[in-house]
Write a structure and sequence with these properties.
Blueprint lengths: L4 H5 L1 E5 L6 E8 L2 E8 L5 E6 L4 E3 L5 E2 L5 E6 L4 E6 L10 H8 L8
Antiparallel strand pairs: 1-2, 2-3, 3-8, 4-7, 5-6, 5-8
Length: about 110
């Protein structure tokens, strides 16, 4: 959770993936957003999530593009994927924690 404070401290919003076997939500905290999508079904599936910005997978950095305000997310059986929302400039949105540490001059001194 240290790398995703949005999940621990953020405001949670349920998303509609259009599939009853999929739980999707976003967590917003201090200007940063994480989207989590979880399949509760035994078959692989692809769902569509509304988003104005591309989503970057937190585990393999794959970027899912936006098409008409929607992003397609492929899930394996009982699969889960977590994403950070990417801003329009093509840079990952900095987490509030990273921003605060940088503002305090601490970020560059951490090992």
């Amino acid at each position: 959770r240290r790398e995703c404070p949005e999940l621990g401290w953020g405001s949670i919003t349920l998303l509609d993936p259009g599939d009853a076997a999929v739980l999707a939500h976003k967590a917003d905290w201090d200007g940063s957003t994480v989207v989590a999508v979880h399949s509760l079904g035994e078959d692989p599936r692809t769902v569509t999530i509304e988003s104005e910005h591309p989503l970057v997978d937190l585990f393999d950095e794959e970027e899912l593009p936006v098409d008409g305000g929607r992003v397609k997310v492929a899930l394996g059986r009982y699969g889960a994927r977590w994403f950070r929302v990417r801003d329009l400039a093509g840079l990952s949105l900095t987490t509030g924690l990273e921003k605060a540490l940088n503002d305090w001059g601490v970020l560059g001194r951490l090992p």
